[in-house]
Amino acid sequence: MENDQKVNIVDEANYAKVLLDSVNDQIARLERAGEELSSTLAILRDDGIGVSKDVRVSIGSGIFVSAKGIEFDKVLFPLGSGVLKEEPREKARQMIEDNLKDIQGSLNSLYVRKKDVETRYESLLTILQNSSGKSTGTVNA
């Protein structure tokens, strides 16, 4: 019976580790998306971009071109499948600010979830280490 409990704890610890890895991956993706949106928002907020001497504009694949005096009142948003939607610059700013708030809310929830899973995982490892000094299974700390 004790061996069955130990195996169940090992399975639960392994599951917690997988869940923790998944939460960390979600956090990393949301943080990257937030950074990208913040950069985009900074450009949309910069009213002096049209009078600047030189601006780098991404043309995709990590390649940029230099442009002078960019002026724009409309922004194109991708909807998917190559379809774009045109929005006024101010509405685009608001949409991105709203997206950033949503991302921050999601990140806050994930940080709480991560802490809970880490606590559970560490507790399970402690139980395993304290039970007869050895564990069965493949818990990767």
> Structural class per helix/strand content?
alpha+beta
* Number of DSSP E strands: 4
- Please compute the radius of gyration using only Cα atoms: 24 Å
Q: How are helices and strands ordered from N to C? A: HEEEEH
Number of helices, where a helix is a run of at least 4 consecutive DSSP H or I residues: 2
Gross morphology is elongated
Which strand order spans the largest sheet, edge to edge or round the barrel? Answer: 1-2
Helical content class: 55-70%
Mean pLDDT comes to 86
Distance between the termini: 25 Å
Unreliable spans are none
- Percent range for β-strand residues: 15-25%
Question: Largest sheet at a glance?
Answer: 2 strands, antiparallel
Molecular structure report:
With 141 residues, this protein is of the alpha+beta class. It has helices spanning 2-45, 89-130; strands at 55-60, 63-67, 74-80, 83-88. The strands form two sheets. The chain has a two-stranded antiparallel ribbon. A two-stranded antiparallel sheet has the order 3-4. Strand 1 and strand 2 (63-67) form a beta hairpin.
In a few lines, what is going on in this structure?
With 141 residues, this protein is α+β, with helices and mostly antiparallel strands.
